[in-house]
Amino acid sequence: MAAEEEDSLYVLTAVLLTPAQFPSVLGDDYPAACAVLELEPYAEGYGLVLGQDGAGARWTVVTEDVTQVACAIAAWDCGVESDLSPDERDVVTVLPGWPLALAVSAPGLPEPHDPALEGELGGIGPVLVPPDTSDWGPAQRRLGADEIALQWAQWRAQAEDDVEFVESGGEPDEQVRRVLEEVRGYLKTPPPPGRVRSAFASGDARTLRADGPGWSVVARTDDIAFVLLDEAPGEIRTVGRGRELPQLLTALDGIALRPAA
Fold first, then answer.
1. Domain of life here (predicted)?
2. pLDDT tens profile 57-66
3. Which residues on adjacent β-strands are paired with residue 226?
């Protein structure tokens, strides 16, 4: 195989890394996500392009051209082919491995594998790897919240319509109340960028996402909320609307960061 082919990047997917939209698996907020990749948390953000080289090794290209990456993602979401070739002048860094798990690979190449960091590449490390889904921790908690936000109707169908604002009695109730108090604290003291995010939902509603030390909250402004905790592996707590939740969600949406239109 020619050296030029080995150095080529075969793009598989891309994601945005901005204050309002970033892979939550990397952290509870935008600065934390940037820190994992050793990037400065610039307000403009970055685009992450995930692909394979000619030998099949995984690489993540970090580009400053957020618009190019956003346009490519939008086209792909609509089923339209779109070439994504970051300009070298916009590339901030190239990192070995992928921070996210991908189930696809480039046709005609060896199976995706970690690059051999030796010789000229010996000083790059460490290799990025997706979180281990066999265990429960902050990354898995955030991934669970991602899934609820993505499949809201499915998870909402499993919740009781008449659930109270916070179910009474027992330790779980105290855990949920603690989380809600921390969420309210964001209204008084602004959290790091990305801790509270707002995304489009059906009608006039918004999907809200709030994260903090050991917890994640997913809610819709016209509905209920779900809470996930590091200390409760795999459990999903439901917070009913009652009289308090609508006001809290409206206030949160007012301070939430929104993806660019």
1. Bacteria
2. 999 999 999 9
3. 218, 238
Q: Which two tokens stand for residue 111?
A: 């199976």
d(CA 208, CA 217): 8
Q: Please tell me the pTM assigned to this model.
A: 0.88
Q: Read off the tokens for 5.
A: 């082919």
Closest CA to 211 of 233, 191, 237, 232: 191
**Which two tokens mark 134?**
């066999």
**Residue listed under structure tokens 């010789």:** 119
DSSP 137: S
Q: Is 175 helix (H, G, I), strand (E, B) or coil?
A: helix
**Alpha carbon distances (Å) from 210 to 36, 203, 218, 225:** 19, 21, 7, 11
Q: DSSP string spanning 38-103?
A: T----TT-EEEEEEE-TT-BEEEEEES-HHHHHHHHHHHHTT--------GGGEEEEEEB-SS--S
